[in-house]
């Protein structure tokens, strides 16, 4: 069992390093997404990344110190995280982000009627023009039958071929539909990763608990 235990121990340590890197990536994603999603969700993502990072550090310490108490606590944390991941997959909150982004487009388009340039960030981000199409700007008097530079590739509207003809509502929907496919793979990867680490941690926790009991007799 000694060789097998050592293999599991260092495998768990390696997996926790990767788990910690994942936590850092999630934190970075939450930071970059600040302003592009509701603040509550951005905070939630930052908290999730921090929790993953802390759990990974706890797992590394438990494995290296061969502490049953730390490992059982670690297993408990992993079970909680596993439950949250499953809940996220089942509840599927992607539509919340999508509705928020579409609502931002609607609000910015309303502002565009009185405050020129309000749509610039949205149009530059999603490579789109207007609410439904570039034709929408024909109904806004202060644009004089033209479109803002953000409606064109490299902000160059001299060449008509540079014009983004698709509306921002359509582009936002397409972007979130594409993201949904990628995030599903990510969610199932996290779930599988969590299960593997949970199994390794459980085996080690049982082994070190039994070993301590034998030493006490």
Order of helices and strands: HHHHHH
**Helicity range of the residues?**
over 70%
In round numbers, the mean pLDDT is 83
Q: Give me the Rg, rounded.
A: 25 Å
What's the total count of β strands?
0
Q: Report the principal-axis shape.
A: rod-shaped
Class from helix and strand fractions? mainly alpha
Parts with pLDDT < 50 across at least 5 consecutive residues: none
Number of helices: 6
- Strand fraction equals under 5%
What is the domain total for the residues?
2
Distance between the termini: 20 Å
The main pleated sheet reads as: none
Organism: Drosophila willistoni (Fruit fly)
Family: Belongs to the tetraspanin (TM4SF) family.
Keywords: Disulfide bond, Membrane, Transmembrane, Transmembrane helix
Disulfide bonds: 128-168
Please tell me about this protein's structure.
The protein has 217 residues and is mainly α. The chain has 2 domains: 2-93 and 181-216; 97-171, Cd81 Antigen, Extracellular Domain, Chain: A, CATH 1.10.1450.10. Helices cover 72% and strands 0% of the residues. The protein has 6 helices and no strands. It has helices at residues 2-32, 39-65, 68-91, 94-112, 120-126, 168-216. α1 (2-32) packs antiparallel against α2 (39-65), α1 packs antiparallel against α6 and α4 (94-112) runs antiparallel to α6 (168-216). The protein is rod-shaped. The chain starts with a helix and ends with a helix. This is Tetraspanin.
């Amino acid at each position: 069992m000694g060789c097998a235990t050592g293999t599991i121990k260092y495998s768990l340590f390696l997996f926790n390093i990767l788990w910690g890197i994942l936590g850092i990536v999630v934190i970075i994603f939450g930071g970059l997404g600040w302003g592009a999603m509701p603040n509550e969700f951005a905070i939630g993502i930052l908290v999730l990344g921090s929790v993953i990072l802390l759990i990974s550090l706890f797992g590394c310490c438990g494995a290296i110190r061969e502490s049953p108490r730390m490992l059982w606590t670690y297993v408990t944390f992993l079970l909680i995280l596993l439950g949250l991941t499953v809940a996220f997959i089942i509840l599927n909150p992607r539509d919340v982000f999508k509705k928020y982004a579409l609502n931002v487009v609607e609000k910015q388009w309303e502002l565009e009627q009185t405050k020129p340039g309000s749509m610039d960030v949205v149009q530059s981000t999603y490579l789109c023009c207007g609410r439904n199409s570039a034709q929408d700007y024909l109904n806004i008097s202060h644009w004089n039958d033209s479109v803002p530079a953000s409606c064109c590739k490299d902000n160059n509207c001299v060449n008509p071929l540079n014009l983004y003809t698709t509306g921002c509502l359509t582009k936002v929907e397409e972007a979130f539909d594409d993201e949904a496919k990628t995030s599903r793979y990510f969610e199932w990867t996290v779930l599988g990763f969590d299960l593997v680490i949970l199994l390794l941690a459980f085996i080690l926790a049982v082994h070190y608990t039994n070993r301590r009991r034998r030493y006490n007799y």
